[in-house]
Design a protein that fits this description.
The protein has 1 helix and 13 strands. By secondary structure, it is mainly β. The chain has one domain: YVTN repeat-like/Quinoprotein amine dehydrogenase (Methylamine Dehydrogenase, Chain H). Strand 8 and strand 9 form a beta hairpin. The radius of gyration is 14 Å and the shape is globular. The protein starts with 16 loop residues before the first strand and ends in a 5-residue tail after the last strand.
Length: 147
């Protein structure tokens, strides 16, 4: 099968994605993603096999270089759809969600305790960085049982 046509070949618009942690211990998958609005980015249920299922996630997720964390945009609705960044700590089995909301978040790299990405990658892109050391205080703890 060939490459999907634009924009479905871009991370926030993928129909599915799979990634194994660098140490090979964890596998995360998202299949059957659907558009959140016409021609918009996609979302679906992210499964971290043996750990969590997280709804409304973008198929644009990354493992940290030490395999402890997984970062994923999750669509959250208030007045209009916006993505928050969810960080999953596989060692502590905890989930944190950013208080900051992004129009569209495209994750780029997750190394040395820093997650980098781009907000609105197609229209007026703006780079952002999230430092893992700041997550427990700056992010909201999400009880995995309520997901």
């Amino acid at each position: 099968m060939g490459e999907e046509p634009y924009p479905y070949n871009q991370p926030p618009w993928r129909r599915s994605h799979e990634a194994t942690s660098p140490d090979g211990r964890w596998r995360a998958t998202l299949n059957g993603a659907v558009e959140i609005f016409m021609s918009g980015p996609t979302k679906g249920a992210l499964r971290i096999h043996g750990l969590f299922d997280i709804p409304d996630c973008g198929p644009d997720f990354l493992w940290s270089d030490d395999s402890r964390y997984l970062a994923v945009p999750q669509w959250h609705y208030r007045f209009r759809p916006r993505a928050r960044i969810v960080i999953v700590d596989t060692r502590e089995k905890k989930i944190y969600a950013s208080r900051t909301r992004y129009k569209i978040a495209q994750l780029e790299a997750f190394a040395n305790g820093v997650l980098t990405g781009v907000e609105s990658p197609v229209d007026q892109p703006r780079a952002f960085a999230i430092f893992l050391a700041d997550v427990p205080g700056a992010f909201e703890y999400i009880d995995p049982e309520t997901m």
